[in-house]
Amino acid sequence: MSAYTGKNIAILGGSGTLGHAIVRQLVNEETGRILVFSRDEIKQLEMMEEFPPEKFMTLDFKLGDVRDLQRLKDVLVGYDYVIHAAAIKHVVMAEKNPEECHKTNVLGTLNVIEACKETNIDTAILVSTDKAVNPIGIYGKSKQEAEQQWLKANANGQCQFNVVRLGNIIGARGSVFEAFEKQRKYGVLKVTHPEATRFCITQQRAAHFVIQSINSENEQIFTPDMDAFRVVDLAKKIAPECEIKIVGLRPGDKLHEEINEKLSSDDSFSLKI
Fold first, then answer.
1. Is the C or the N end of the chain the one with fewer CB within 10 Å?
2. CATH label, 9-167+202-225, candidates 3.40.50.720, 3.40.50.12280, 1.10.10.10, 1.10.8.100
3. What is the C-alpha separation between 87 and 103, in angstroms, rounded?
4. Nearest to 151 by CA among 222, 91, 224, 85
5. Helical spans, DSSP H, in 51-197
6. Own/partner pairs for 70-75, CB < 8 Å, 24+ apart?
7. How far is CA 114 from the centre of its chain?
8. pTM of the predicted model as reported, rounded to 2 decimal places
9. pLDDT tens track of the chain, all 273 residues?
């Protein structure tokens, strides 16, 4: 019997890359209802084509925004678990729109916390990022504050709030992987710094790790074992025929990301795709 048999699971940001991957895994479990909640109507329509309602009757698609507290309260009634993967994630866009980033990543997370408490959610998982560790940019700082507020919510003892911290998800929209694939046709790949490194994880493994974290009895931050790679090595692997152009670190970029402990410049990095 599945650990999720009969359990109703809500995925906020459910039409994003990670949310979509989570749905693909959960539909094979004997769950109760699965809610896909997001503000992206086109992505939801695409998912409904992949998972026709007449065949996947447990799936429920609803539009909404984590900025809207009342909408969250309405849609979460009757659910057991919440996976909060809704966020403004792109470093450049966060730097250009700090207020909007704060509204979604921080205030939106506070809304999710309140909605979880009021609708008697058993366990809630916040999907966070390695950029929340010693952040220097708007996005990382917003996710660090979201993590802090999320774990602080455990003080009431009602709902268990856990955090899953991930690196770059391979194939995610807006990721370096997608950027290099798009740049490939022009013959030049843009790399910020020759020594810049990033952690990476596949969509399938990230989704599995998030789902498994629901079962934890501990209130904490969970981080999967992830390989780290030099971004320039990734560029060469994706398009060995292309020229590499070093463009410099952007506002909010770090040379090396961190997961739990600070990495030194002497650490060796491997590339596995």
1. N
2. 3.40.50.720
3. 10
4. 222
5. 69-76, 91-96, 98-102, 108-118, 138-152, 176-183
6. 72/12, 72/111, 72/112, 72/114, 72/115, 73/115, 73/118, 73/119, 75/10, 75/35, 75/37
7. 20
8. 0.91
9. 567 778 999 999 999 999 999 999 999 888 899 999 999 999 999 999 999 988 999 999 999 999 999 999 999 999 999 999 999 999 999 999 999 999 999 999 999 999 999 999 999 999 999 999 999 999 999 999 999 999 999 987 789 999 999 999 988 887 888 889 999 999 999 999 999 999 999 999 999 999 999 988 877 899 999 989 999 999 999 999 999 999 999 999 999 999 874 433 333 333 333
* Rounded Cα distance, 184 and 179, in Å: 9
Residue 32: CB atoms within 10 Å = 15
**Residue 207 phi/psi, 5° resolution?**
-60, -45
As beta bridge partners, residue 12 has: 37, 84
Question: Among candidates 122, 116, 23, 119, which has minimal Cα distance to 80?
Answer: 122
Strand partners, 243: 188
Amino acid code (one letter) for 243: E
Sign of the dihedral through C-alpha 228, 203, 90, 68: negative
Please state the separation of Cα 131 from the chain's center in Å: 12
Indicate the helix (H) or strand (E) that contains 113.
helix 108-118
Q: Phi/psi of residue 251, each to 5°? A: -55, 130
Separation of alpha carbons 181 and 173, rounded Å: 11
The residue ranges of every structural domain in the chain are 9-167+202-225
Structure tokens at 92: 């450049």
- The DSSP bridge partners found for residue 222 are 164
